[in-house]
Amino acid sequence: MIKTATPATPGRTIGRRIAEARKAAHLTQKALSERLEITRAAVGQWEVDMTSPSITMTAKVAKVLKVSPEWLAYGRIAPDYAVANVGPAQRHDHPPGAAAL
Fold first, then answer.
1. Angle value at C-alpha 17, between 36 and 68, nearest 5 degrees
2. Is residue 20 part of a domain?
3. Which residues of 16-33 are buried (b: 16+ CB within 10 A; e: fewer)?
4. Is 90 part of any domain?
5. Total-model pTM
6. Which of 95, 85, 92 is nearest to 14 (CA)?
7. Interatomic CA distance for residues 86 and 60, integer angstroms
8. Count of domains observed in the chain
9. Domain containing 51: what range?
């Protein structure tokens, strides 16, 4: 059987996912920006979809927020990431603490 990624969550943008994951991690935009060494305005622009982070920055954001890069970018988790990096109680396609749609 071929493994496939979980389906993307419709209607949610990368900006919304960044905001959800940031809030679930109990970080302010300022705190996240400091950890990423960028401006708070950049985080704010991502969250309202004025701009999007680069691929490299998306990976950094995912690491800081402890979500998969695939979930952050596309709204889904690659099966291998879920198995290798997330405990059984945390396997989902949304950030920790966020409700599934």
1. 70
2. yes
3. bbbbbbbebbebebeebb
4. no
5. 0.69
6. 95
7. 17
8. 1
9. 14-85
